[in-house]
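Continuing from the previous page of notes. For each protein in this section, the sequence appears first, followed by its structure tokens. Read the first protein now.
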Amino acid sequence: MKLLRHLAIALAALACACSPESKTDELTGAEGLTTLRFATDWRAQAEHGGFYQALATGEFEKRGLKVEIIQGGPGVNVPQLLAAGAVDMGMGSNSFIVMNLAQEKAPVKAVAAFMQKDPQVLIAHPDQGIETIADLKGRPILLSDASVTAFWVWLKAKYGFTDDQVRKYTFNAAPFLSDKRVGQQGYVTSEPYTIEKAAGFAPKVFLLADHGYPGYATMVLARDALITENPEAVRAFVEASIAGWRSYLDGDPAPGDALIRTDNPEMTQDVLDQARDKLKSYGIVDGGDPAMTGRMTEARWTEFLEMARGQGVYPADLEATSAYTLDFLP
């Protein structure tokens, strides 16, 4: 019901976007705060903790914003909501999504990256002699359709993996647990923990970012219209989110966790706690340097684009700078 309510809100916002009122008038509420609708890429979880923390602790409000977090899920397509104007800002899960939008000339740009390391991992059984990612070459690997056109491109380029290894991943660990030869995709903050709880063993976990994968994750995307018409609101959102993430990881996460569990009642505190611990121990959010929270660099985006272009994913004339702006970072 919560997801349906959020979808209804998004559709109502889309109808409003079609009205003749100016965007500035629409965004300014009676309280004098600028209203921003921010869509996440999945149901509320610790991987969104900094945004919920910023909302719960008033970081958005003290900067003049009234932020509504629209929870994602299987039926929510963040790029479509952004392109249609149903939301003002949204979450870009990985660098391929952002670059795809640039290739399609969508009026959207990344304005911050809140995971310096993409949390994507490959998982293997612990008793199969698999000690490195390279040892998974030739073995079946469970991948989602989206992953085949994303980090799988990098794995093929670096390790010589081939498409005949791909098996369909439906976000169910049963096929992995039933066949010790099989590898599986996952997030370092999620699947390893659920597998260990279900099967009683700790799987082998390989964080792609620690082996050279150059993509960002959990980027904040803003519509070009918002960037042009209200750059101060974009800057305020980024600043509040940085404060929220630092508070969530290094302070008391209880306010953010409470909002997460309100939005997603299926979420349990033990899952939140272990995910937050993984975000910290692996340096997912800041790469091990708190000053890097939210940051992006031209060099990193260029490296990512060159990697993907080398595999024929993007044309030679696509410019990395069409996908992002650094104007709103500290």
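Done with the first. The second protein uses the same format. Note its length before scrolling.
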Amino acid sequence: MTRIETPVTRLLGIDLPIVQAGMSWASSCSALPLAVSNAGGLGVVAAGPMRLSDLDRTLSEVAGGTDRPWAVNLPLYRAGADEVIELLLRHRPPVLVASQGGPRRYLDRFHDVGTRCLHVVAGVEHAEKAVAAGVDGLVVVGAEAGGHPPPAMVTTSVLVRAVARAVPSVPLVASGGIADGAGLAAVLALGAGAAQFGTRFLASTESAVHDAYKQAVLDAGVDGTRTVGHGLGVIRVLDNDFAARMRSLEASGAEEELRRKAFQASTLRDAALHGDVTEGKVEAGQSAGLVDALLPAAEIVARIVREYRAARAGLPPIT
């Protein structure tokens, strides 16, 4: 097995600094996380949209399908989060990636069962608070990311560097706008110990989203995403009729209730499960413009490693 050793790989016990993002519906399954973990990275089950019975079954499938570390992503704002936490504690996942809430809510209980805890942050202040609470590492999300980018819309390159300077002893996973081995090399140079890949793994054969969703990612350019939902909870999505309607309402200064009604009328589920890429919320990052092929997840991991080697070899020497 090829190895790239970093503070994150040492912390998590993985061979490669490649983390598959916990993406609602896309990795709310066992196939994608298993493929990534078995290839040497960190596969992540997305617990956000899952019923308890489905999550229970999926965690058993992942635990039984690999002897490598794997993770669960839990958005702490989801309905029934406390029940999910109790279920996860029974399964003792090797790694927890928690987001959108404070770490003190869960940290001690997961540490007691031996789980490494990464917390998702979108700013230096939040990073410092999470570190003070005792998290094992951070996932630092920049503005290029799909789904929920940081409110201040600071780019990944700037935010990762700022957090690395603020908490230099804490392992960091960089997320947002990273789709290949050159991106991995770049964030390692900035002080991260791994890169999180979301949109790249959306376009994998194991991803559980509809084929139309995957094709929309492949068809997108680097300028093909929009941020909408300002004042309601900003998301980054591929440009479509829903996004155009939201942007028009926002530009015209429409009342919040009208904007909220239009925002809530469209769902990620419609796009991910039913293939409605015209009216659904097709969440994806700017890196969609760098994704050029639908591949098995293991081949994506191998390709990232090859590109990383090429990126390093292509750097000019110091003379």
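What the second structure shows: Residues 297-313 form the longest helix (17 residues). The CA atoms of residues 30 and 57 lie 9 Å apart. We return to this in next week's lecture.
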